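Appendix B, example 12.
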Amino acid sequence: MKIIYQPKFINSFNQIWDYISLDSRNRANQFKKEVKEKIEDLENMPFKFRQSIYFQDENIRDLIFKGYTIVYRVDAIKEIITIIGIKKCQDDL
């Protein structure tokens, strides 16, 4: 499967990286590396993660990683995974 990154994801991710790098550039780079590995692993099992709580579509999924939700869409027919966005998980308690 091919992975496509939406501009919204790229912009949000860059903001997160900038924020983490204020504390430690090494930690920011490590986070970037780990997120990339998690996303690339979707090629093997694209439906591994839960259906998104943000959309009523079983092809849109939420990858949870280190307190962030990465929302992505799977198009099994075209064999494309589209990374839609990333946001900090919020507790509603």
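Helices lie at 7-23, 25-41. Residues 42 and 48 are 8 Å apart (CA to CA).
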